[in-house]
Amino acid sequence: MASPAPVGGIADRGVSSRPGDGRTGRAVVAAEPPALCSSVKQYGITFGFDRAYPCGQFANGDFWVAPAGDSQGRVRIMSISPGFSSGRNGFEVNPSSVSRHGFDRTAYGYDARLVPALPYSAAPNQSIVKAISRSGDEKTSLETAAVLTVLAAPPADNGRGLFRPPYFGSKKPLIPVARLRMDRLPAYAPLPMMPALSAVSDRFRRVQLDHQLGWSADQIHPKQNMPDYGAQIAIDTASAALRLMVRDDDAQRRQLAMFLAQYALDLQAAMEGGLHFYADGGHRHGRKLVLTLGSLLLDDAAMAARVRDFQQDTYQEDGQLSIGAGSGKVLFGSPCTVEEYWENQNNGTSTRDCRDPYGYIDGGQEPAGYYQFCCTAKGYKAAALALRLMPSLRCVWTDTRILLYADRWVNHGAWTQPDPYQPRGSGALDSNPSDGTGRWPALHGAGRDDGYYGDDFADAMWAAYRGQAGDTVQCQ
Questions:
Q1: Which tens digits make up the pLDDT trace of 365-401?
Q2: CA of 208: how far to CAs of 3, 225, 231, 295, 382, in Å?
Q3: Do residues 276 and 314 make contact, with C-beta atoms less than 8 angstroms apart?
Q4: Residue 130 pairs with which residues in a beta bridge?
Q5: Between 250-272 and 301-308, two packed helices, what is the crossing angle to 10 degrees?
Q6: Which one, of 65, 53, 64, 59, lies nearest residue 6 by Cα?
Q7: What is the pLDDT of residues 234-284, one digit of tens each?
Q8: The whole model's pTM is what?
């Protein structure tokens, strides 16, 4: 049985050589044969086969397996433990739905028909994605997940120099890690206090199971792999991008870049299958930066186009920030109707991140409160800083609203003035200036550079380097 090895693949087993062939005088080095595995185990998940098959690990440590010479082009999987039972500990082959899954019956969108029966005869270009369910009253239903990829034949270097193919869908490209464009990263001077690269890499080491629509996607984000909530995902991804931009050990920087690029490859595949990240409270931000950074690290034009050409409402960062018609400022708030806005303002029901329909003030149930303060401001600040410190990112991202908004939040706070409308007035003009004109006059400037789901390192990077970053960028 093969078991996980350090990232980079199964430990070297050595090479054999023969004396020179008489023509060149050089030793002839034989290619290292792949390991043979009757089972593979990763993160507490075991895949058992009917015989020993060629196997190995990709650069991120995830396993591949290939048919044996006499297995008729298939890999027969006899067992996957912990076993699937009563709608828990499920698995899927090539997940392809962004609204349904087969991982756990307690998570929204569960569909038992997506779980194959065992034994399962796996064909090449199939990703078997297995989850372990968790017990306890938490948002996510999953403890962890792992991916086993079935290939047609052992890959070059037994996979050690390759990204794992995307787990979503049927396209399984084998992309070399050598493609990483580390030369595109800036190298800022280290700060006195910053997280170790190894710790940041560990955060992204396991598969980021992130292919379902809406807030309920939180329920299949495995606890050991990633946070359930988008606000934490957003600050994690932005802080990781910033950490990658600081001078440090080259090998460790490359490893972190590899994990982030792997996440981008998985997201790209799912978005080709219909995934999007529409604005939704604090659930759906953070992924646009992963794709933007990934497109540059991988020199991937299609991935760049997935960001650049799909700005409107594909990503929360775009849908939740708008230039107010009344103020001319970049304001917080998600798209909604006038009726929905006032329903929330007057009764506290309906959406709590609703945009000001008149474009004068920050939206939400209360400016500088709820989703603006708790779950988005710090993530947007960190993402905006990453865009400024690596200007080539802005040539893919293209939109400047997050940059303007972050500066305003840090330097001023919430925006509520001027505002001609009265509080709880359902659109009536404010004719009583005795308590200040507008819906929330006392909150102008509230919350400045504050909020939950923040990160000390990202804040320190802002303090150290925001002043050095320019406002213009040259794009080819």
A1: 999 999 999 999 999 999 999 999 999 999 999 999 9
A2: 21, 6, 15, 17, 20
A3: yes
A4: 91, 146
A5: 60
A6: 59
A7: 999 999 999 999 999 999 999 999 999 999 999 999 999 999 999 999 999
A8: 0.93
